[in-house]
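ingest -> fold -> write
write: protein_1
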Amino acid sequence: MRKRKSIILEKIVVEDYAAEGRSLARVDGKVVFMENTVPGDVVDVKLFKNKKDWAEGYPLAFHEYSKDRIEPFCTHFGVCGGCQWQMLPYTQQLAYKQKQVEETLRRIGKTELPELQPIIGARDTIFYRNKLEYTFSNREFLPPDEFRLAEQANMADTPGTSNDERNSVRVAGFHAKGVYDKVIDIDSCFLQAEPSNAIRKAVKNFAQAHDYSFYDIKHHNGLLRGVQLRMCTTGQIMVNLIFGYDDRQKIKPLLEFVRNEFPEVTTLLYTINSKWNDSLNDLVPIVYFGEGFIMEKMSADSDGFDFHFKIGPTSFFQTNTAQAEQLYNVVRHFAELTGTETVYDLYCGTGSIGIFLGREARKIVGVELIDAATRDASENAAMNHINSAQFITGDVARICNDEFFDRYGKPDVIISDPPRAGMHADLVHTILDTGAPIVVYVSCNPATQARDINLLAERYAVTKVQPVDMFPHTHHIENVVQLKLK
């Protein structure tokens, strides 16, 4: 087979941001998309997709850097894929995100929009995550430059190959972007406040000193597999250690070490995960110390009322508490409640949005596919004295029909917070049929939100748009849209 010739475009000026963390340039009428660049960079680009009107590539060399660039604060930037925009000032990040929302809604939504409200930025742009999961592995990912140095020092398994990992080492960190079986050894991560880094390092050092095996992702063996850390604004901390198999003689000493070394940890658990995937949702964590859960607090901005949420090791909860508070307050304002409304909270998760609205509505009906989530929602509603809330387990697109609304009440307000794929087409048609006066659509993906808004435009007009930045230094963006019946 004839090998396709590589195409390299030289000294291309990056012109604009193109959403999803990519930038773009225009070359002879063709749009070229690329990652790891920002507008103002001058680069050589190697294409890996080349169509008639567009292409995709990656930068081979930088001739000039954009004047907008700043020095990233994390030593792992560019290797770890977690914070792609550290090289941009935060104000610039917000400007790009605002632009992404507006352009996406106009291009895909194809409906009239009001003036967008300015994006709500984060007060804290580092240490903002309340949940983080680290992976322990015997397979280390090394960037090409580091691998060459390791190869020269005979640290690699097979010198002279293009391999970019070292086996039979012990590392603790994050999966390398796009590589399922290799882990980046993290020194300090700026996503979660201390003692997050200290706990990870202490567990790693203890395991190394006592010759614990680290998990081999490719061959599916090894004892120490991961650690999940949850930290609340209340000061409560949860540590859940993940093991590949049950070995009480090694598990108990490590748990006891963590308990003694970090007295600030309020609950300590461990989970045996012998599956091929990392999901913990179908597993039962075992409580070693504490109550097995932690409590988080959020405030409504209108009256300063505090809501409390019980969070277990498998609970879904927005990972940026401070910005979730901002997001939920936007939803409350957009719902325009007077105390007489029946509110449907679709894709409700553990019910946090519905609970946040519960004191101002006559009735809340939440719907969620995962039974454990609706149980958590019911418990959180009772704890917050929201007695008018009901949470139903089921597929939103299947159970939300005329019979369902006849049973639980005609909706006055519908809140929809679907996953990235957006709402199922059947649910869009159901909302159109119900004719609820107000729909508040919360989305983590402006593209699928715009698609659904286009479908809803048959009966609904977009009346308010509010972007919220939940994840600083990333290209991810949350957006809230209010729609009213025409």
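write: protein_2
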Amino acid sequence: MTTYPAATALRVLVVDDEPLVALQIEDALTDLEYEVVGPAHSAATAMALFRTASPAPDVVLLDINLGPRSVDGIALAGQLLAERPVPLIFLSSLADAASFKRARQVGPAAYLVKPVDPPALQRAIELAVGNFAASQELPALTQPDDEGSGPTAFATPGAGMVLPDALFVKEEGLLVKVSLQDIQWVEAVTGGCRLALSGARTVTVRQNLRDLATHLPAQRFVQIQRSYLINAACIERLDPARSIVQVCGQLLPMGRSYRDELLKRLHLV
């Protein structure tokens, strides 16, 4: 499988009450270059991991039968979805119509019968994430536009999204995950935008800066110049007199109106 050094591996929460089966699933996911959360052997442990794991799981892979001392996987799926939307893939040794009918009511992305073939598991995960990401609709939000040209309608990133803390960049026909926390700044370049990531990595996308901004949360990403967006958490120093900001060691120029707007939003003491 191709390795993408600029991407973050998808995080899969594994829920199965049989330790040996869970270990086999974990090994298969690791071989497929996914990052495993857990595995969890009960609904309570799964819920705790779902709430506290950082970064949060991108996909949940859960067995329907979790043993007599736990709610089953279908009930757990409903509890997880009540916390936040997430792609769900059911695993089961039961292929009967009744189990499938119950599971279908939760709206899973896939239903796989154990033992699971690794290529089938990979296809199910990729389709689950891709379909969930593509199905989201983003409502509008007003944000400042270029200097002197007034406000522009941007989308509200994360509203209703399955994975609000990540973008998916197209590379070689695949959707590759890039965590928002890894994006330090974005620069408009010919034909699209270049994303500067942690670890001195870069990713180039074909969207222009205005369109890409609709996928970034305004409370975290701030436009500082016509050609630059920065991750506010990465700001190290500001030189208001020279209109320069230092972001993760890199000096970037600020437009005057963008500079004034940024200063208004910072805690100055």
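write: annotation protein_2
Residues 118-134 form the longest helix (17 residues).
Residues 140-264 form a domain with the OB fold (Dihydrolipoamide Acetyltransferase, E2P) fold (CATH 2.40.50.1020).
pipeline exit 0
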